[in-house]
Amino acid sequence: MRGKRLLSVFACSLGILLCAGNGNADAAASAVVDDRSVQSQTIVNTDRHRPLRARDGMEKREAVDEAAPAAAAEQKELSLQERIQRILHPEQFQPPKPVVTMSSDDNMIMGGAVATQEQCVRYLLRNNPYPKLNVTPQELVAYYYEEGSRTGIRPDIAFAQALKETGYFRYGGTVVPAQNNYCGLGTTSATVRGAYFATPRLGVKAHIQHLLAYASTEKPDDNIVDPRYDLVRNSYGEKTLERWQDLNGRWAVPGVGYGQSILNDYYKGILDS
What we know:
The chain is mainly α. Helix content is 59%, strand content 0%. It has two domains: 2-88; 117-272, Orthogonal Bundle (Lysozyme).
């Protein structure tokens, strides 16, 4: 009788344990389901917002992309100095007047240089590695470009004329290197040496001013060092010579083909160097 009672109690206890176990399992399963549903809901909510964020980013990028070319174009058109002035004085900013570029026609005495200073030096040294000069070839060429820019005379072709007049600065004729006379100024015969200049720069200035006397009625801005400037200007009055070929028979006598030789025999070589 006691054994049956114990067996009954054991069965009841086992049933309680099984029920409790099932309850925990159900609760655990329910918790797992709830967690999954929460995760799923979170993923869904996150995915739902993701396209909106992406779309907002794309719209912002598109706006930036559309504005960038216009801003870049505006910045490209302005120099650094102009941009600074616009920032500092926006109400007073006035764009600079366009600069009129001088003619680069190779036949014209006046105009802007086409050949570079390096080309002039290279061509000279190729034809005469040891020119008889009182300065370096680089310095002499720089003088031509400075004086030419000051007066409007083509400095590259004026230097080509100096190469012709001096035989690539070998001299050997009436004029000697000590004169710093690069264009035969005042040399009228085999016995008359012509003008002397104290420095190479003055010699270049006189050469450029002598060309200006033929090509323009405007006087140089600085002091006149060409001893024959007034002689030429008074002779020509309002008349001027425009082209290098116009110097034929005037700069040199008889001077047949003188201007053409400057362009074809010397200046062309500078351009090709």
